[in-house]
Amino acid sequence: MDTAFGEFVAARNGSLRRFGLLLTGNCHDGDDLAQAALVRIGMRWNRIRHDTSPEAYTRTTMVRLYLNGARIRRREIPTDTLGAASNVAANEEDHDLRQLLWHHVRLLPPRQRAVVVLRYYEQLSEAEIADVLGCSAGTVKSQAAKALGTLRARTRRGRAFISEGECGEG
Fold first, then answer.
1. Which domain holds residue 135?
2. Among residues 22, 42, 72, which one ends one of the domains?
3. Total domain count, the chain
4. Residue 95 shares a structural domain with residue 42
5. Of the residues 35, 95, 99, 170, which has the maximum number of CB atoms within 10 A of its CB?
6. 72-119 per-position pLDDT tens digit
7. Verdict on whether the full-model pTM lies above 0.90
8. Is residue 61 assigned to a domain?
9. Residue 19, Cα to own-chain centre: how many angstroms?
């Protein structure tokens, strides 16, 4: 294995795993997604490290693998939560609110969920998200608007939130 690639994996693995968790809603699937992307990146490492930002390339690969996998297999929504990756506030009310919101984000269709994660977790611009998803900025805006509208409606109705769980970092 290339030393530079090993250093990249060691430095960014935790961040990529959290990103995978946010996309998939499940720590195990998130780990698998990060690993699958890193396998692909590793095979192209010499080209990627010189031509582009390796982390941005890896995250784009993760989003595309996630969206392709979501199209191929529809699965039940798992019941674990963000746990350690969520940076839960000390205030229990904030924690409950975050869990409720995360529950509803996990119910969004894959593309809308990817837009929400890329916009509000990764803080990418609409143009950057469009590039990652391979679509227009208008599509990103429309998917974001639909997702936010759905989240507003669901949280307003006050559905019950899911129980607390935790994914280990390591």
1. 85-156
2. 72
3. 2
4. no
5. 99
6. 444 444 444 444 444 433 455 566 666 777 888 888 999 999 999 999
7. no
8. yes
9. 4
Tokens of 113: 């969920």
Which long-range CB contacts under 8 A does 43-50 form with residues at least 24 apart? 45/2, 45/4, 45/5, 46/2, 49/4, 49/5, 49/8
3-class SS string, the chain = CCHHHHHHHHHHHHHHHHHHHHHHCCHHHHHHHHHHHHHHHHHCHHHHHHHCCHHHHHHHHHHHHHHHHHHHCCCCCCCCCCHHHHCCCCCHHHHHHHHHHHHHHHCCCHHHHHHHHHHHHCCCCHHHHHHHHCCCHHHHHHHHHHHHHHHHHHHHCCCCCCCCCCCCCC
pLDDT class of 70 with cuts at 50, 70, 90: low
145 within a domain of the structure (yes/no)? yes
Same domain, 32 and 94: no
